[in-house]
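Model it.
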Amino acid sequence: MTVDIISPARPGAVNGNAVTARRWARLLRSLGHRVRLQERYDGRPCDALIALHARRSAASASRFHRLYPERPLIVALTGTDLYHDIGRSAAARRSLELATRLVLLQPEGIRELPAHLRSKARAIIQSATAHPRAARLSTSGDFRVVVLGNLRAVKDPFRAAMAARLMPEDSRIKVLQAGRALEPRYEERAHREMARNPRYQWLGEVSHARAQRLLAGCRLLVVSSRSEGGANVVSEALAAGVPILGSNIGGTRGVLGADYPGLYPTGDTRGLAELLERAERDRAFYAGLRRWCRRLAPLVRPTQERKAWQRLIAEVHQKAPT
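Modeled.
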C-alpha cells in the first residue's frame, strides 16, 4: 500500500509527535508499504492516510475523505485531542467521525471517547530502543533527574525544578531539563530558575540522540505533564531501564498502571519533592520502581508496535474496496 502520514510539525522537529510520525514511517516501510510523510495532505492518491492529531490535521483528514471516501482513514489521537479538543473543537470531532480507525497511545484514553466511537479505537503503545549507555549508568556523584520535552504550559515544565528547591541541603538531586522554549517567557523563566536554583540546569533544545543519552545517564525521568496522550519519553525510559516519576494523569497511568508507586498529584510540588527525596534516600523504594519499570519493558519493544500496526493495516485493508 501507499500510506501518507500527516504530522503537523516543522521539518526536523524533535517533539514527541514528530518523533512518533517518523518512527511510524520507518515501521510501515519495514512492512513493505510505501510511505510519504507530510505536514498537510496534498491530494495525491494514496491507499490509506494516517492523520496524527485530530484537530490540527482535521483539514487533511477531511480532504482525503472527500477525495477517497472509501479508503482507510486512520486518525491518531494526541493528549491535546483526548483531554481538550474533542470536547471543544468541532473539527476534531469531525475527524473522529470520519475515521475508519482511531489510534490511541495507551488504553486508558479510550474512556475519553464518545461511546459510539470506542469500537473503532485501537491502543498501540509506542515502542523504543535502549541507548547503549543505558546499562552503564554511574552510581556516583549527583543523583541526576531528567525532564525531556518542549517547554509549554501543558507540560508543567518547571515542576521538577521547583521540587528540587525543597530538597534537604545534603541532597545530591540535580535536575537536567532539555527542550525548546516555545515562548520567550519560558526561556526567561528557565534562565531565572538557573540563577536562583543550583540544582537545576536547562540545556535548551537537543537532538533526539542527545536526549536519549541524557536519559540513559540519569537516575530518574520526571514526566510532570498536566495532559498526555501517551508520552513517547515514557516508552524510552522503560526501554532504557530508567525509573519514572510522573503526574497522576491518564496518559501516564495508561502505560505504567494506576497503582504505579511513582505517581504524584498533578501540579503538587511537595508531592513530587517527597517522591524525589524518597527515590534518592530509600534504596528499596528506588529498586521497586526499577523492578516495576523492568516488568513493563516488553510493552515497548519495537516488535510489539510493529505487530500492532501490521494487524491494524490488515484490518482496514480488508475493509477497503478492491
